[in-house]
Specification:
six-stranded mixed sheet
């Protein structure tokens, strides 16, 4: 009776004789007549982090076609009487799970509810294909009912335990003359650092050069009974300043500088009232800068993209559009395009169009931006009568 296993939603639990304190949820209104699980997936966990989740299920004593689960048994009606002797295997170390009862029996006309909770601190990483072995007593429905006891069944479900991608060693600001610093892994080892100025596990401000840089640590692992690797990453944004470089007045203290009001530093310390970027389009109003929210129709360019919402820029339209990677060095992908795209334009922080592409018939468009200078830009997508502007950073 392998088809019965899908009725029992125990998921990724360790062997235990204890019983959980979870409270079953009655989700029968959302399930087929024969019952099932209320939720087919468990939440992801992180290695060495406390984990706690539960899942409810519904059974009943109604006859149903076993072919629902196994085409080889189509035409054979069965009903569940009792589920018992539940054991579990192939789980991440540190996770234990228990059911709220040792066994589950059904009654005619009444739903039987149950749940399983699982807690602990996983110490193994990966995608785990946990198995639950159980015995099921059933009746083959028909003119002469046939009782079958102790039928073996098994249920399988996924649980992902992600690695810990944390690292230390980076500050927020460096001078290009500063010495290289070590990147120290505080989580899962064996991953890879990447980003401008990164060599192995060191970051060199001189090699990175001036600008804002994203340093990333990506780690992937597969341990214990895992059948596939799980991956996670951590990113830190750092700014490198060149001695004697220009800084820009930030009169309205919104974090964005005025390109028309600059001075040269004597070292790498930015004077009070100045910032390293020159992207503010109105340095007298803190509510106007590239990070502000555009208010359509008020004749004010709040987000410094060169246009006001009244000119057709609606941040809420074309909601599926996305630009990645962001920040980027060489290539920017525009995804979520539907049908024919009239045009895609790239503008600088002053709203000037640098490049434009038209009549694009592809769900994803690839743009080469490697020749752009480092800074903040905007890509404007026009489809039919709708437009959207997305801010991106060129490293």
């Amino acid at each position: 009776m392998k088809t019965l296993l899908l009725l029992i939603p125990f998921t990724m639990m360790g062997i235990s004789n204890l019983h959980a304190q979870c409270t079953p949820v009655d989700c029968s209104a959302d399930l087929p007549v024969y019952g099932g699980t209320c939720d087919s997936m468990l939440n992801d966990g992180s290695v060495n982090q406390v984990y706690d989740d539960f899942e409810s299920f519904v059974m009943n004593n109604d006859c149903f076609d076993a072919g629902v689960f196994d085409p080889g048994l189509a035409g054979t009606d069965i009903k569940i009487n009792l589920v018992h002797d539940i054991t579990f295997a192939s789980l991440p170390a540190g996770i234990s799970g228990v059911t709220n009862q040792a066994s589950y029996s059904t009654s005619a006309g009444v739903n039987t509810l149950g749940c399983a909770s699982f807690t602990g601190t996983p110490t193994e990483i990966g995608v785990f294909n946990g198995t639950i072995d159980l015995l099921v007593d059933v009746t083959v429905c028909g003119f002469i009912p046939i009782d079958l006891t102790d039928q073996n069944a098994q249920y399988v479900m996924w649980l992902t335990v992600n690695p810990d991608p944390t690292f230390t060693g980076l500050g927020s600001t460096y001078c290009s003359t500063d010495a290289a610093v070590n990147l120290n892994i505080t989580g899962t080892t064996g991953g890879t650092f990447s980003g401008p100025g990164v060599t192995g596990s060191t970051f060199d401000p001189a090699a990175a050069g001036a600008g804002m840089h994203t340093i990333k640590y990506l780690v992937s692992a597969m341990e214990g009974a895992a059948i596939a690797a799980a991956s996670d990453s951590m990113e830190v944004v750092v700014e490198v300043i060149v001695p004697g470089g220009d800084v820009f007045a930030d009169t309205d203290a919104d974090g964005y500088g005025d390109a028309a009001n600059s001075m040269a530093m004597t070292g790498c310390t930015i004077p009070a009232g100045y910032v390293a970027n020159d992207t503010d389009c109105d340095d007298t109003d803190a509510s106007i800068n590239p990070g502000a929210t555009e208010i359509p129709g008020n004749s004010i360019d709040e987000d410094c993209d060169g246009v006001d919402g009244a000119l057709g820029i609606e941040e809420g339209s074309l909601s599926t559009l996305n630009a990645y990677p962001n920040p980027t060095e060489n290539v920017l992908f525009i995804s979520g395009l539907e049908g024919l795209t009239n045009s895609i334009s790239v503008m600088n922080s002053n709203g000037q169009v640098i490049t434009s592409h038209s009549n694009i018939d592809s769900p994803i468009y690839e743009m080469n931006v490697e020749n752009l200078e480092s800074g903040i830009y905007f890509v404007r997508i026009n489809q039919n009568n709708n437009s959207k502007v997305i801010r991106f950073v060129k490293q």
